[in-house]
Every structure is written in structure tokens, then in C-alpha cells.
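User: quick one, fold this
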Amino acid sequence: MKFKFYLSLVSSVAVGIFVAIGVLSVGSFVVDYIKTQSYAIYDSASDLGSGKEYEIEEKKVEELSKTDEGVPVRDKYFLYEESQDFPKLTSQAYLVADLDNGQIIKQRNRDEIYSIASLTKLLTALVSLETLDQNDQTTVSYNAVNTYGKQGGLYSGQKIMIFDLLYPLLLESSNDAGEALAEHGKRSVFMENMNGKAKSIGLFDSYFDDPSGLSQYNVSTADDLFKLLRYIYKKQRDILEITKLREYENVENKWFNNSRFRSDGRYYGGKNGYTDEALYTLVSVFDLPLVDGAKYLESNDRRIAIILLKGTDTEGDTREIISWLLDNIYYQ
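Assistant:
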């Protein structure tokens, strides 16, 4: 009996060690991927699987990453003399910046890597637009609709246009829609393109393990997400346009925006997310009247991006930041 007991004990310990090594190995793979791998990007659906590689567009990355260097005085922000302290937030990392000129107003842990949950879907939408024919019709698979989560209302066998899948993806954060898009683009190739696109626009501290954000190994930084947001803003603004809609419907479905800011007239778009690992994550853009004195470019508004990672109340954090900006920041 003692022999059987000790044999069972040794077996249990061995299994535990094996599982731990497996988990650590996956995490190590993500870190190594971020640090060392060379990346490729396929620029159209016709290049998928062809082996055609494209080097990182360094000039484009540099242009999208500019902050206050070379920014005209009238484009720069200033603090009022009696400025209030920046609010204490629940988010472990944040970045507040001007979307047009790239100037960072406030940040904390902008280069720290965190799980990002459904913020992943911004890149999923981008890669879909740039590699898939949006007029194609796809059939939603059983596998796609059985992805965790019920948002989107898709069903197995449903025929739907590729572009229409962007609405449940971005408005209701449908994981099913993300999987359907990836499957249409051959999932493994689609994921290669997501990681390739990320690196081609300078997201060097990011890795994407799935198209929905369910995996804890979908990771990024506030700084990388700002680069992604600026690229979308300059190159694929339809994504932001979709995220600020209140609702959208086609022949079979009607999707509603799950953002708490959808009724805010200043809201220009964004994406939220949650997983147990990532906690609450949020990227949002607001048009805020921060220009001091005369109108600038026929508008008193500045387009401000707010990026929050690993928070417990990202909506409250966002409102606190907006209030602070309106009370303490001005442009001239």
C-alpha cells in the first residue's frame, strides 16, 4: 500500500511539473516572439501563402510615431498655471495623446506589456480590410459560432458578407465574427498577417494569438495601441466610423453598440474589452474643446485618444481624464 501511495504521489508531482513547464513555455514563446522574430506582411489576398515578404516601412512608422518634435506652437498643449493634480486611476497603464499630431499629454507604464482582451479586434478589422475581399460572402462555421461568448447572433451555416462581419465584431465585440473572418482568410495565415501587420506599423511589443482577444497571450502596450489607433485613423478610418454607430442592421441581424459612450456627442469611436487576465481595457477617442482663444482650423476641438489597460473601472477612468483635460489643458 505504501509503495502504491508513493508511486501515485510521484506521478502527481511529475504531471504538475509537466503542466507548469508547458504554461511557462507558451509564455516564453510570446516573449521570445516579441523580442527576436523577423516578421513578414502579406499586403493583399492574392499574396496569402505565396511567401511574398515586405520589409517594415520605417519611414511610415516614423511618421506615425512623431510626438512633439516639429509640432507647431499652435498645435502644442499647455497646462494652466493653477493646474490640478492628475486623477488617480484604476488602470495600471494609460496613455492620453493628441491623435492628429501624436503629442503625448499624460502616460503611465506606456511601454509595459499587458493582455489586451478585445482591443485585439481593432487589428482583426484592419487586417480583414487590407487582406480580404470585403464583397466576398462567407459561410459561418460551427467552430466559429461555438467560440466562447454569444455576442453577434450569428449561426452555423449563415451566409454573410465579409464587410458585414465588421459590425458584430466592433459593435458587440463578437468573438464568433472574429473567428469567421480569420477562417475565411485561412486562420493560420490570417494570424500571420495580424502579427506581420502589427510589426510593419511599429508594434514591436505586441503579439496576437487569436483574432478575438480571448487568449491571455494577446498582448500589447499602451504605446503600441496608440500607434495602431493612429494608423487606423489615417489609413482605415471606416473602423472608427463603425465603432461610433449606435446600431447597424442587415437582412438577418441587428447589432447594437455596447460602448457606454455611444450617446456622448464628443465620442469619435473606440473599443472596450475584458478577460480575467486583462481585466478591463479601453481605447477611446473624443473631440474635446481644448483650443484657447480664436478658432483653429474652423474648430475648437482636439481629437484626443485615451488608452487604458488592466483597470477595474476604465469607463470611470475615462470620464476622470476628460474632466481633467477640460479643466487643465489648452492649445494655442
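User: anything notable?
Assistant: Confidence is low (pLDDT under 50) at residues 1-7, 37-68.
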